[in-house]
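Here is the promised in-class demo. Please do not try to memorize the tokens; focus on the logic of going from shape to residues.
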């Protein structure tokens, strides 16, 4: 859904920035004090409640709420530069992608409502503005929650030259963006601090407080919050790889699903249950694939806010070779050394070429919405093998002439448009 842009006045922006920056300084100071004094948290009233997955969670009572404050810290195997790329969002689609990766099935929607400051050459992480988020907190048995918040991110450098990046969020109240009737608005003040260590790894710190409001019991929330954050912390090391993977361009190929057994290009297994990797376009079996939910690039400008719940998602399939590719490498090129070459039989299945002029003959496009957003488009074989036999073999397994390449590009464009149209129609139907 396309949300209206906010236009807060300069005094309002200055007020929210001052409060958000104050909390950022508080989070940075708490992180620094804990690194130099392990007894600091105990002196602040925190108690260790969980030590799991390489992270420790401390909680303390909040003087103004029954929902506790928490402080979580741990180590992740990534660099400060990679984390800077992973958490920075400049567009609404970037924000939706990041939230979908971090919150997974609990993510519903997000948007940038107003941008006030952006990155600079000196600080590539710097950003300040107003954002919106809607998600489930812990369980879908409770009503969905949303919030309008100010966000400030930036970089600090200590005396030794080590960098620390931070991102803090603070709920704001504005009559320009009222609450939806079917969603509970929650309040939160949270900060993420990533400090560079001498071995170039990162120590992360999550500090803050969240009041979900509504009918969520405090004891349930206080017990589930550290567990949920501990689980999400395990993906910090993989965040950059996941984001680069979903933001990489799709392989320029023609997708074919005919139900016949195929050999996985990652392992020697032959199976009928195979998928195409969206990044490199190779056939992948169930054991060698990775399914990632990601937001579709569609806009529901006419959607009814009272009925709109979540942004339409797509479940994309990737092979493990593309996921393990170095973050700065071209993933498609990297995986070519790990994949076997495509045989002439693959081209016989994928293409139906009509004549030496290089145009497609009557290939029927059949689409199905049985898998929801992961709509597959199937291309049938030629009506007759004579269609393929009329084309020189070099045209099938070698380089295509320009006319065939142009025809392929046009067919791919039609398929992509059909997929997007089917997904949007199905989600609109489901929302009704």
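The designed amino acids, position by position:
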């Amino acid at each position: 859904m396309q949300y209206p842009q906010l236009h807060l006045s300069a005094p309002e922006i200055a007020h929210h920035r001052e409060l958000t920056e104050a909390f950022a300084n508080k989070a940075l100071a708490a992180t620094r004090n804990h690194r130099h004094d392990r007894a600091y948290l105990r002196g602040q009233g925190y108690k260790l409640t969980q030590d799991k997955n390489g992270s420790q969670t401390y909680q303390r009572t909040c003087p103004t709420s029954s929902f506790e404050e928490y402080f979580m810290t741990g180590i992740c195997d990534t660099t400060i530069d990679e984390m800077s790329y992973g958490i920075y969002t400049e567009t609404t689609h970037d924000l939706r992608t990041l939230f979908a990766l971090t919150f997974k099935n609990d993510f519903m929607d997000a948007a940038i409502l107003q941008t006030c400051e952006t990155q600079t050459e000196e600080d590539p992480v710097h950003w300040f503005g107003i954002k919106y988020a809607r998600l489930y907190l812990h369980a879908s048995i409770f009503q969905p929650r949303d919030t309008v918040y100010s966000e400030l991110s930036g970089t600090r450098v200590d005396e030794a030259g080590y960098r620390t990046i931070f991102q803090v969020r603070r709920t704001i109240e504005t009559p320009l963006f009222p609450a939806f009737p079917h969603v509970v608005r929650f309040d939160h003040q949270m900060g993420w601090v990533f400090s560079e260590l001498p071995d170039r790894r990162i120590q992360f710190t999550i500090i803050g407080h969240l009041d979900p409001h509504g009918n969520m019991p405090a004891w349930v929330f206080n017990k589930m919050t550290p567990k949920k954050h501990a689980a999400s912390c395990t993906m910090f090391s993989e965040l950059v790889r996941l984001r680069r993977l979903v933001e990489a361009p799709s392989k320029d190929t023609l997708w074919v699903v005919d139900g016949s057994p195929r050999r996985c290009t990652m392992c020697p297994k032959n199976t009928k249950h195979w998928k195409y990797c969206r990044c490199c376009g190779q056939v992948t079996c169930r054991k060698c694939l990775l399914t990632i939910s990601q937001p579709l690039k569609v806009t529901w400008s006419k959607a009814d806010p009272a009925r709109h719940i979540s942004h339409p998602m797509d479940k994309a399939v990737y092979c493990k070779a593309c996921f393990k590719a170095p973050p700065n490498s071209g993933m498609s090129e990297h995986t070519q050394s790990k994949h076997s070459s495509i045989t002439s039989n693959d081209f016989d299945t994928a293409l139906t070429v009509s004549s030496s002029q290089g145009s497609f003959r009557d290939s029927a496009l059949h689409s199905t919405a049985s898998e929801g957003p992961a709509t597959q488009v199937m291309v049938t074989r030629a009506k007759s093998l004579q269609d393929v036999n009329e084309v020189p073999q070099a045209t099938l397994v070698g380089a295509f002439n320009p006319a065939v390449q142009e025809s392929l590009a046009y067919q791919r464009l039609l398929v992509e448009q059909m997929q997007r149209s089917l997904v949007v129609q199905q989600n609109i139907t489901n929302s009704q």
